[in-house]
């Protein structure tokens, strides 16, 4: 075990070029061990964020109907797979390559000649890409739920490629790539991406649902919303738990180092998710007389999205307040959009867009160093407002244009007959829950 | 020969089966079915919006019996399945021309 540790340490010394002398002859230094720990922790955190893809797949499948379950799974599988390729080829360079304050223009195809050692501190290009591509896939997959049960598969494929190759990376460059949001006199704080990741996904989801229109049967002849219950609450809630677990890679991993802040960030994440779940359950209970299970699940996710911006900058009490208010907010938001003709079967717009914006703004009030409530004045809140509004405008305009362009060319929505029959058979050849075909009927 | 068909609440199936055993019934067939009656379904809420459940899940039991046993069997089903609330279901009796046991070829009374 000790030999192995020394070996890994030496490899990291090579990797990060901590020392000028030949690495193999080098004593293990504190710096080289720290660099190794940083890289290993961020790889683990990246894997946890990738696990969130399974959570999204289950939440979306659970909250929609059985006749579309294979289509939902395929969308989740393909937005991740296509997203990895798109972000590796183009997106990563736009996000983190050198360029101007708005987008990067160098480092295509993960060019190690551009992203040289030390570009990402202790983290290697491989580590940093792995972590960031997992985030890009998260932003992309959020939209799938809002557009569920009526979108053409090929159209969704085009959308997910464009958002991970261009739209999301541009927003990332503004803040995490050292762009104009990072250069404000008081830089915007969005530690792990309430706005940068979830806002992008949530507002693109809003435009997707808006351009598509509601599912057949969602509204009665007088325009009143009718519930279309999901086919598996167990799927949905297991999905929520997987997302909750994945969030411990998402937020604490965004420290981008293995240091003392990591457990503290994990605790604010935990508190906010729990508070969101409890408050959403009580809110819907008081409103309708029943503690709705799916809504409580949305509450947990709303709390988690809300805390993501300020997870490293607020106290435990701050995390509780953000999570609790996000839990209440998500209930009213889901009902608000439902009554205004925006059919979002899983609540993606409310969870990721609304709670993401809310959590980002709350950092301006509750950040323990620069927040208004802690005597930090108005400038942090001002920067938070600028960031939230800029991302909202950019994403709604670009994703709206994208969805209208797809609609005008290859079409966005499946024909009504296919929607009624279910997308599984028509789009993908066989149902998600297939029949037991006997040997006789096969012959 | 008679066919006694009953549509009952799904959670009453076990009680009905026990009651039928006590009056000497040797076998029944149970099917999961859906339907509506005088109440016409009912409303449920999901994520803050209402929806109507048009067809309620029920269990359908089928019992083949000798005509002489019909009254005892229908009484047993009713006493086991009744709750007094709307949605308890129905029992009906129809004539059967022939009953044949597939394994042995026995007919009618012997086939029950």
**SSE pattern of chain B, N- to C-terminal:** EHEEEEHE
Give the CA-CA distance, first to last residue of chain B: 10 Å
Q: Assign the CATH architecture of chain B.
A: 2-Layer Sandwich
Basic shape of chain B:
elongated
Q: Which CATH architecture of chain A?
A: Orthogonal Bundle
Shape verdict of chain A: globular
- The structural class of chain A is mainly alpha
Q: How would you concisely characterize the structure shown here?
A:
By secondary structure, chain A is an all-alpha fold. Chain A has helices spanning 2-16, 30-62, 69-96, 125-146, 153-175, 194-212, 233-253, 261-288, 293-307, 316-339, 348-366, 379-408, 416-421, 423-428, 439-442. Chain A contains 15 helices and no strands.
Question: In words, what does this structure look like?
Answer:
The complex is a heterodimer of chains A (443) and B (112). Chain A has 443 residues and is mostly helical. Chain A is 66% helix and 0% strand. Chain A is built from 15 helices and no strands. In chain A, α5 (153-175) packs antiparallel against α12 (379-408) and α9 packs across α10. Chain B is α+β, with helices and mostly antiparallel strands. Chain B has a single domain (2-111), classed as Alpha-Beta Plaits (2-Layer Sandwich). Chain B contains 2 helices and 6 strands. Chain B has helices at 13-22, 70-81, and strands at 2-8, 29-35, 42-46, 49-53, 56-65, 90-95. In chain B, a hairpin with a 2-residue loop joins β3 (42-46) and β4 (49-53). In chain B, α1 (13-22) runs antiparallel to α2. The N and C termini of chain B lie close together (10 Å). The chains are: A mainly alpha (443), B alpha+beta (112). Chain A binds chain B through residues 225-230, 284, 287-290, 292, 294-295, 298, 331, 334-335, 338, 347, and chain B through 44-51.
Question: Which terms would index this structure?
Answer:
heterodimer, A: 443 residues, mainly alpha, Ammonium transporter fold, 15 helices, 66% helix, globular, B: 112 residues, alpha+beta, Alpha-Beta Plaits, 4-stranded antiparallel sheet, two-stranded antiparallel sheet, 2 helices, 36% strand, elongated
